[in-house]
Amino acid sequence: MSCDCCGKKEKALEKLMKLEPKKTTELVAFIDSLPLGNDIDANRGCLIETLHRAQTIFGYLPAEVQQLVSERLKITRSEIYGVISFYSYFTDKPIGRHKINVCCGTACFVKGATRIVDEFKSKLGIKEGETTPDKKFFLGVLRCVGACSLAPVVMVDDHVYGKVTPEMVSTILADYQD
Amino acid sequence: MTITSLSDLKALKARLDQSASDKVKILMSLGTCGLAAGGSKVVDAIEETMASQNLGDKYEAVPVGCMGLCYCEPTIELRDNSGKSIIYGDVTAEQIPAILKAGMSGAPAGTTVVERTWYYPEDEANTHKALQARIALRNTGCINPELIEDYIRQDGYQALGKVLSGMKPAEVSQLVLEANLRGRGGAGFPTGKKWQFAAAQPKGKKYMICNADEGDPGAFMDRAVLEGDPHSVLEAMTIGGYAIGSDIGIIYIRAEYPLAITRLRIAIDQAHEMGFLGKNILNSGFDFDIELKYGAGAFVCGEETALIHSVEGRRGEPTFKPPFPAVQGLWKHPTVVNNVETYANVAAIIRKGAAWFRTVGTAGSPGTKVFALAGKVNHVGLVEVPMGTTLRDIIFSLGGGISKGRAFKAVQTGGPSGGCITTKNLDTPIDYETLKAIGSMMGSGGMIVMDEDDCMVNIARFFLEFTCDESCGKCTPCRIGNRRLYEMLTDICHGKGTPQTLVELRNLALVIKDTALCGLGQTSPNPVLSTLTNFADEYEAHVNEKRCPAGVCERLVRFTINEKCVGCGVCARNCPVTAITGATKKRHVINQDKCIKCGICFEKCMFKAIDKQ
Fold first, then answer.
1. What is the dotted CATH code of the domain comprising B368-451?
2. Element (H, E) at B370
3. A46: nearest CA in chain B?
4. What is d(CA B532, CA B26) in angstroms, rounded to the nearest whole number?
5. pLDDT of A145 over the 50 cut
6. CATH assignment, B456-544
7. B414: left (phi over 0), alpha (psi -120 to 50) or beta
8. Which of A59, B228, B306, B312 is most buried per CB count within 10 Å?
């Protein structure tokens, strides 16, 4: 039996395999390890976990990955997109090699986080949620990393910079000259 | 090794106690903020010094969770077997050899010794009149969170043993109810009651959920517990599972807390190995298991029905209650959702009894509350105080007063759902009811202190911006109402507000409070309402005089140069738009038409010659 969706199915997996064979294999292996069945509700319970893993592997959630997850978990693309757009952790846009996140929690806010964000914006020439054209830096803001004693705080990848001043911004960026 | 009975467990504890070394322990605070402040360099120095000076038989280095002294990280504590201790703050790697040389004899010169401001109600009387009482944080900062033996040495899993070896499920709920343990997530619902509701449902699948989706910006107490004492949460969930007749627990944790996730995973594995989780726990016939589910960054998922939807893999939108989750929750089965800090209290209550728990705190709200003290206060960190402590004690005694010698203006409790409390209420003994009465709420326990340099209109706008971002969009009052509130506040901050704006602001805020679907929407106007009430003069200054008294709202600020100017030219050189002109050694002038109000001149001037109005 053949139908549109089966045709598409081949395409999503094939295309991904062509683009990112290693990553795709890793994701498929992960999905295969899940206790999936025909019970859509039970499959849905694994959705967020799957998206987390997919984003860790691919760095973001491109349309092909969403399609693949949709087929394997038997959940519609629209619903998956609904989940991705709901949670701020998930993104369907490629992000830079280094993720800069300026904490804008209350403690950082009262200690001047807005000025830090402005400084990054002007130094990088991008807005929050964007990636530099050379794909090097992504600039984001997040709500509280819980290091309020070091406010204002900036996280670059997994490294935390505390008590950041606008003057420190260029020094921070210089740490990532690759 | 598997533990199969309470007496087994007690025997193990006795063996552990006996084999305890008489070495002095070096407790190294290695929570997220300890690590961020450079804690690992201190750890390296300790290991190096111990190796090079052969101190291995004198000291034992123990990595622990957060001690709550975030303001002076990296922190270490030397503690000997008699309980004597010295706490060092702001430790540097260079100080380590001297500190280890001195040992318990006293602190070497040049180090910072921190006074212990807490006592442990479970083990000791409050002899040094400490303001803090640590029940939920009793092990955090004392034990190695990655060793189950350390937890067992602190009477860990004894409460579970007691429950499984001689208490009926109904007795457990009843005990927690008698202790009047109230939900520490902020709403204050009696935990025992929640358990009774779920227990009263027909037998079948039931779920025990731990809400570890700490989304309130500026609150980090749950993270401290999970990173520093993960077993206490596992033990309490298992006890709760027994009380309601559930065999599965789920910890819903923020993906932003990688260290807490790692430590929970280790703890769950260890509990399995020892038989505190899994089938037939302590040979009682009771089965219980715990799994982790990750949040993905949505503040609304702190609301229990939204959290449940998120666990089910859906968008985390709340639903109308009733039916309450205790009746119909996860996958439509009875579900209890409790907060991390609530669970952290349970084992102590079981061990020491309800009457003991009620001796701490106030009659209506027994026990303690952990607050994350942050903002413009000298001693940023975690404090656990008995309910009924005044804000003055927390901010000025434990918090060490306002930083840079500024004047206190307000404190925000309850995060984006709470309100601002001003000087006049500093002496109110705080518990769930009193905070509500003064226009705020307990919330999860974030406590942000603000000083005279903070503009309250701008603060309200900050919280509304947050709410707009985090509103799930399901109900109209929250989705559109909060957006309108935010726009009005922006107008006011930009000098476009009119007296009519203030009237509309209050009206809309009240409507949202009455009509929103869930806790997020119903409480989101609180920051607006409380600042409108307590700081009406600031709103009026913005609206009537187009002036920001705190000098924060950029578009309303005016920078001018006063007679203190010596003409050094620093301001002119740093001005990004060359709005400052003047001859050398002559008073400079700011061209107001060109000025973009960035404030750089104000910061750079060393002669206080720039006025900000």
1. 3.10.20.600
2. strand B368-375
3. B313
4. 50
5. yes
6. 1.20.1440.230
7. left
8. B228
Could you tell me the residue ranges of all domains in chain B?
6-116, 169-356, 368-451, 456-544, 558-612
Q: Are B580 and B590 contacting, i.e. CB atoms less than 8 angstroms apart? A: yes
Q: What tens digit of pLDDT does each residue of B563-613 get?
A: 999 999 999 999 989 999 999 999 999 998 888 888 889 888 999 899 887
Contacts of the segment A1-6: beta carbons below 8 A, 24+ positions apart: A5/A71
**B248 and A CB contact within 8 Å:** no
A162·B36 Cβ contact <8 A: yes
Would the pLDDT of B206 be above 90? Answer: yes
What's the confidence (pLDDT) of residue B22?
Answer: 87
Alpha carbons B306 and B298: distance in angstroms, whole number: 10
Task: Give the chain B residue whose CA is nearest to the CA of A118.
Answer: B598
Q: How many residues does chain B have?
A: 613
> Tens of pLDDT along B133-147?
999 999 999 999 999
Sorting pLDDT into bands at 50, 70 and 90, what band is A129?
A: confident
Alpha carbon dihedral B393, B398, B399, B400, in 10-degree steps, equals: 100
Q: Which of A34, A74, A85, A86 is the best mutation test for B, with the most CBs of B within 10 A?
A: A86
- Residue B136: name the closest of B11, B229, B271 by CA: B229
The gap between the terminal CA atoms of chain B, to the nearest Å, is 70
- How is domain A98-174 classified at the CATH fold level? Glutaredoxin (3.40.30)
Cβ contact A144–B219 (<8 Å): yes
- Which CATH fold would you assign to the domain B6-116? Glutaredoxin (3.40.30)
Q: Is B557 helix (H, G, I), strand (E, B) or coil?
A: coil
Contacts for B294 with CB less than 8 Å, ≥ 6 apart: A48, A49, A52, B252, B253, B254, B255, B261
The Cα–Cα gap between B422 and B456 comes to 11
Question: Are B316 and B301 spatial neighbours (Cβ–Cβ below 8 Å)?
Answer: yes
pLDDT tens digits, residue range B247-258? 999 999 988 888
CA end-to-end span of chain A: 52
Asked whether the beta carbons of residue A110 and residue B459 sit closer than 8 angstroms, the reply is yes
Structure tokens at A14: 């094939």
Note every long-range contact of A114-117, with CB atoms under 8 Å and residues 24 or more positions apart, other chains counting.
Answer: A115/A166, A116/A152, A116/A154, A116/A164, A116/A165, A116/A166, A116/A169, A117/A141
**Measured between CA atoms, how close is A87 to chain B, in angstroms?**
5
Residue numbers in B near A146 (CB within 8 A):
32-33, 214, 219-220, 223, 257
CB contact under 8 A, B315 and A86: yes
CA distance B77 to B89: 9
**Rounded CA separation B593/A117 (Å):** 25
CA-nearest residue to A83 within chain B is: B315
Neighbours of B464 (CB within 10 A): 25
The 8-class DSSP code of residue B556 comes to G
Q: A64-75: buried (b, 16+ CB within 10 Å) or exposed (e) per residue?
A: bbbbbbbbbbeb
Contact with chain A for residue B375, Cβ under 8 A = yes
In sequence order, what are the residues at sequence separation of 6 or more whose Cβ sits closer than 8 angstroms to the Cβ of residue B598?
Answer: B576
Look at B485 and A38; give whichever has higher pLDDT. B485
- Provide the CATH topology of domain B558-612: Alpha-Beta Plaits (3.30.70)
**ω into residue B323 within 30 of 0, thus cis?**
yes
Q: Please give, one letter per residue, the 3-state secondary structure of B148-189.
A: HHHHHHCCCCHHHHHHHHHCCHHHHHHHHHHCCCECCCCCCC
Nearest-angstrom CA–CA distance, B51 and B62: 15
